[in-house]
Write the structure tokens for this entry.
Amino acid sequence: MSLLQRFGLGSGKPTSTTTPSSAPRDDGTITASPATPLVRASSTSARDSHKHNPFTVWAARALQANQADRSLACHRIWADLPELGIKPKFQIAPDQAVFAMGSCFAREVEDALVKLGFDVPTHCDVLFDAPLLTRGPGTEGTRPRAYLNRYNSMSMRDEFRHLLGLDKPLEQGLLTYGLERGGTAELHYTQSLPQVGLEGTLERRRLVRNYLGPRLRASRLFVLTLGLAECWYDTVAGRYLNNTPGPRVLATYGDQLEVHLTTFSQHLAALQDVHRCLSGVFGDDFKIVVTVSPVPLERTFLEQDVVVTNSYSKSMLRAVAQEFAVAHGNVDYFPSYELVTVAQPQNAWAWDYRHVKPQLVGHIMGLFRRHYIAEPAA
């Protein structure tokens, strides 16, 4: 199967009952007709948008004009705190609870939202006061709820189902790996807590489900932060792991574990499953804000530079987020990814050039509040 065929392209078979995407003209040349675009604008609408939208131009063609117009994108992104044109699809009540799910950047988002006065049920460090969920030595300075980090869309879908009591295999121990001396590796969550046995691992899952499950059902706004495309897969379980297995897991279970560089269609399908799952609980009475984590991949297990793997991951997930948002009236894309990646590096990144400075995260979520929150009438 060719690469094009793997992505459903170039198979030579019509994909619908409409006319083919290209047809011969009388003179024998081929005129392509476009497939269904993500967004379609008439020429009149396009001209109007270009005329009235103040955010359409990156830079002027002449130096003097460029220097004079500070509204150009080249100036806005290089400000100490970058600004983008944001046009929300919907508004959010100021007292709306925000249920967040995603990688470490989602934890940063939670911190910033709490400082802005939001109710964030997933900002739940108190949950980790339970003895079984207490962190071990050497983890000082890390967030207790890092245990909840969710690194890929397929694992995110599994966690929504788990919290809603819809995934019995996870409740019964799927993606746990027994090790020597009675320890169990937990690969549906992160490995930020000391290993315990299988019974303790399942009890941890129950504690998280009992705490966050009711809070998920009481929420109507969900912020999803997409993370990675290089994912570990268990061929026996038929599931994607949430994070990377350690050396002892690989030594014992390596024959059933694989690394996958996952595809656009896999992540879009997982997000559509999340939407269907939430629709089954709330009907149409919920909203999703989706974004992409700017935090780069820490390491790759593929025969290519980590920068190349990361570039594929982020660009693909960014496209997934756009298509997911366009497909649903109650889903919107928020450009936190762009607000970090186009910013001046010294203003954006911590010492490791992976994690985002809290000041910029606070600014980004301030923009979220400014644009999305429906302030009460005076």
Remarks:
- The chain is about 40% helix and 10% strand.
- Residues 1-24 have pLDDT under 50 and may be disordered.
